[in-house]
Recover the amino acids of this structure.
């Protein structure tokens, strides 16, 4: 992108060459042989590094580990007890069955392993090192998803431990076709990133594309998956999320079986689903647990809610400002009466109330639950009522803004919900400047933007941009389960059918 | 933008590109253009459909002979570099005027009906901004927009229900009370509704299934004809003969027939949402104009700056100080004659292609 090139040049100019020379942005990790000195120099000023001298079969050895990544019971159980219970003629590597011998020419790997919770046994006399995985830290237990709650279906969700999250998926898909590719990412953090896919279903091109994109990212470290997800997306400037994101195990499992690719990162409970469509941002796994008719109704409400949410308040502005003739006399009288004391034009009136709602939402979400609820009630009832009585806004507008704010929360995807609210401001300004024509010109721009978006190279607006006609049975219409026999077009799956068609 | 000659248009894209290339904003004045034949206008539309299908055949045949080239390249290959470039220049003028015509027609309508306190400048600028964004995405972006525009505007057909509820269906009975001259005038003025399908010769190289392009384009033409038939039938059964002859924008009057309990003057909404259809057709025309500049000034190589150049020129034609009498000539005559030339051009080119082939065969 041109904006990116321009920004890159500005950054290059502001970071002085002297600073670059003295502090290279990314150090090239040259490998060196393992010695006690080199180890000590690497772990300088790391006070949680424990180095203990012990005797193993009358041979002196150093026990080295990070106390923050393991605990004494693990060291005792996995290292010391096996060593103590062996006879003299058994070598330590045979006594500790799950130990591995370290390559003495590869210091970087050894340091990485110690930083990952390994304990090493360094036999100084014979320059020999054993490493044992003793990683043990406290993790959040598997809990229900707070942000993606459902009435029916499984309630477990991913947590910050990558191994736990992967195990939750593997509990559900017990197949050797479920592949797990784990890579190290982040030049400083060395995070584990896992790419999961069904080898017999997922499109090879898609899998390779994801792996290539992940490999091509060079960054200091990811504190959470949404950052990595933004870097993987096709159009990072767009306000719309181009990949799915979930903490629900059933949603991720269903996506894998549909031929999608899952990306997870250690330390983040979310899983990214690649590729994904615009319509999928309005669907929930609960749609499949519900009866088809109810699910269809709910999907229609969510999608209709999206349109109403972006157009409702802007229509209020455009009709009152430019097209009052569109209103029947009774409605016009009612609206005029409610606005008699309002000193602002409709555009300003709407912007003020919309911003108040945004502030209330933001304040409520940053506070502890009980205070947040109070803020909601105070904001919703007291401020709303007070604003009407003070003549700052019309009571009709309060109803409209509250409705559109509620509708914007209908999409199960949080990022889509945010995008809807942002786009609404575009419509409000367009309606305030060019009336209904402005609203529809902005809608045209928005539709063109959405039509040009791609998710992993496939059209984001599928099934509206047709990939497969069978997609229509899992769009706004959620057909009865019997009819859902094919995988989504956007997956470009190797196997199209989910079950044989000649079944009775 | 379109990089390389990748075949990227599937059958749906072709159907809706062709459908949106016909009619356009002229739909608002459809009964007015065909007023000369009065209540017989639905027959003219059927004849237009048949004629368009017949004329489409040589176009597709010619394109199949040069499956990787647009009409701009074919002109240069068959007529020689200089005559070909000259012809391309005329085509460029024609499509540029078409973009301006489509935009100006719509902008004037918006200004007159929905935003009477505005000048046409902000409306035009907004329209061209979005149009440029659509064209910037290339032909596939335009095709996708055409599909979306069709679905988002098609339901407006429901509003014809009120026209039909007050209808006198006896008006539909054919009356051969018009002279040949009247039929000729209706064909001449009404032809601007139909001439757009010739644009297939420019996006043909991007079609995936070129073998079936004739079938898909024909479906597109007839979807458009059915829509126009609906409007003309609604007009015939709802309006009196005097109204048919004198109403400049009969579609607006059809909108005014709509009676809803919570909304009045539905034409404001109708005109506003019709921006989607206008943008679909105008974007396709602007894309062809941009390709024309590519053909003339950069040896058919894709240059995005040509798009901005054409946008600027079209904006000038719409907003610039051009005397009304010249505007009348440009929009009411040149465009129609230009369209006739464009639809008859493939027949000439096919003929030249055949002669060339014979000559080459005899020399070998």
């Amino acid at each position: 992108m041109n904006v990116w090139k321009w920004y890159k040049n500005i950054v290059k100019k502001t970071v002085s060459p002297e600073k670059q020379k003295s502090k290279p942005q990314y150090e090239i990790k040259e490998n060196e042989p393992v010695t006690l000195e080199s180890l000590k120099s690497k772990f300088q000023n790391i006070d949680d590094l424990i180095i203990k001298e012990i005797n193993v079969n009358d041979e002196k050895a150093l026990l080295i580990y990070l106390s923050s990544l393991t605990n004494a019971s693990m060291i005792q159980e996995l290292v010391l007890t096996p060593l103590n219970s062996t006879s003299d003629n058994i070598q330590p590597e045979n006594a500790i069955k799950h130990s591995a011998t370290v390559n003495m020419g590869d210091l970087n790997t050894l340091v990485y392993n110690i930083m990952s919770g390994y304990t090493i046994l360094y036999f100084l006399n014979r320059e020999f090192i054993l490493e044992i995985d003793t990683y043990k830290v406290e993790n959040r237990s598997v809990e229900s998803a707070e942000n993606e709650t459902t009435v029916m279906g499984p309630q477990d969700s991913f947590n910050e431990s990558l191994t736990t999250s992967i195990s939750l998926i593997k509990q559900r898909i017990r197949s050797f076709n479920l592949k797990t590719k784990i890579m190290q990412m982040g030049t400083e953090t060395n995070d584990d990133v896992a790419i999961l896919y069904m080898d017999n279903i997922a499109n090879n091109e898609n899998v390779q594309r994801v792996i290539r994109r992940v490999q091509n990212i060079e960054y200091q470290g990811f504190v959470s998956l949404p950052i990595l997800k933004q870097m993987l997306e096709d159009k990072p400037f767009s306000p719309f999320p181009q990949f799915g994101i979930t903490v629900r195990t059933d949603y991720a499992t269903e996506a894998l079986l549909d031929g999608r690719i899952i990306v997870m990162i250690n330390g983040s409970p979310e899983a990214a689903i690649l590729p994904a469509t615009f319509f999928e941002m309005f669907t929930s796994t609960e749609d499949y647990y519900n009866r088809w008719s109810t699910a269809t109704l709910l999907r229609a409400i969510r999608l209709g809610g999206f349109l109403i949410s972006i157009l409702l308040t802007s229509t209020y502005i455009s009709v009152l400002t430019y097209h009052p003739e569109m209103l029947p006399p009774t409605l016009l009288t009612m609206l005029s009466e409610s606005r008699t004391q309002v000193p602002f034009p409709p555009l300003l009136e709407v912007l003020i109330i919309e911003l108040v709602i945004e502030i209330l939402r933001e304040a409520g979400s940053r506070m502890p639950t009980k205070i947040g609820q109070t803020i909601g009630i105070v904001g919703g009832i007291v401020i709303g009522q007070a604003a009407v009585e003070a003549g700052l806004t019309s009571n009709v507008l309060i109803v409209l803004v509250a409705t559109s704010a509620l509708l914007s929360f209908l999409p199960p995807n949080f990022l889509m919900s945010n995008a809807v609210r942002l786009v609404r401001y575009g419509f409000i300004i367009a309606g305030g400047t060019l009336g209904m024509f402005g609203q529809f010109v902005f809608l045209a721009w928005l539709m063109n933007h959405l039509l040009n978006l791609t998710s992993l190279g496939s059209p984001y607006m599928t099934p509206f941009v047709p990939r497969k006609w069978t997609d229509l049975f899992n769009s706004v219409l959620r057909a009865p389960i019997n009819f859902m026999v094919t995988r989504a077009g956007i997956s470009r799956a190797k196997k199209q059918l989910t079950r044989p068609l000649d079944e009775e | 933008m379109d990089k390389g000659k990748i075949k990227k248009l599937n059958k749906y894209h072709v159907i809706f590109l062709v459908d949106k290339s016909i009619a356009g904003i002229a739909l608002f004045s459809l009964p007015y253009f065909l007023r000369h034949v009065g209540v017989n206008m639905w027959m003219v539309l059927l004849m237009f459909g048949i004629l368009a299908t017949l004329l489409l055949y040589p176009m597709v045949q010619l394109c199949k002979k040069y499956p990787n080239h647009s009409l701009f390249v074919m002109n240069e290959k068959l007529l020689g570099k200089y005559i070909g470039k000259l012809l391309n220049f005329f085509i460029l003028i024609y499509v540029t005027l078409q973009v301006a015509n489509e935009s100006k027609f719509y902008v004037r309508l918006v200004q007159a009906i929905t935003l009477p306190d505005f000048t046409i400048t902000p409306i035009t600028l907004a329209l061209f901004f979005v149009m440029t964004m659509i064209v910037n995405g290339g032909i596939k972006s335009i095709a996708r927009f055409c599909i979306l525009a069709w679905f988002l505007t098609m339901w407006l057909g429901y509003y014809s229900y009120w026209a039909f509820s007050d209808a006198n269906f006896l008006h539909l009975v054919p009356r051969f009370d018009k002279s040949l001259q009247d039929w000729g005038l209706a064909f001449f003025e009404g032809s601007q509704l139909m001439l757009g399908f010739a644009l297939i010769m420019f996006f043909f190289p991007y079609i995936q299934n070129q073998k079936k392009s004739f079938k898909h384009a024909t479906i597109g033409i007839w979807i458009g004809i059915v829509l126009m038939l609906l409007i003309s039938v609604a007009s015939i059964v709802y309006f009196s003969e005097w109204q048919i002859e004198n109403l400049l924008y009969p579609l607006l009057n059809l909108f005014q027939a709509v009676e809803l309990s919570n909304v009045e003057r539905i034409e404001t909404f109708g005109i506003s949402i019709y921006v989607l259809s206008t943008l679909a057709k105008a974007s396709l025309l602007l894309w062809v104009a941009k390709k024309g500049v590519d053909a003339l000034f950069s040896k058919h190589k894709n240059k995005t700056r040509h798009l901005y150049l054409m946008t600027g020129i079209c904006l000038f034609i719409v907003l610039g100080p051009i005397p009304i009498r010249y505007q009348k000539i440009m929009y009411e005559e040149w465009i129609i004659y230009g369209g006739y030339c464009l639809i008859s051009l493939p027949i000439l080119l096919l003929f030249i292609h055949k002669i060339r082939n014979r000559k080459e065969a005899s020399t070998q």
Observations:
- The longest helix of chain A spans residues 414-452.
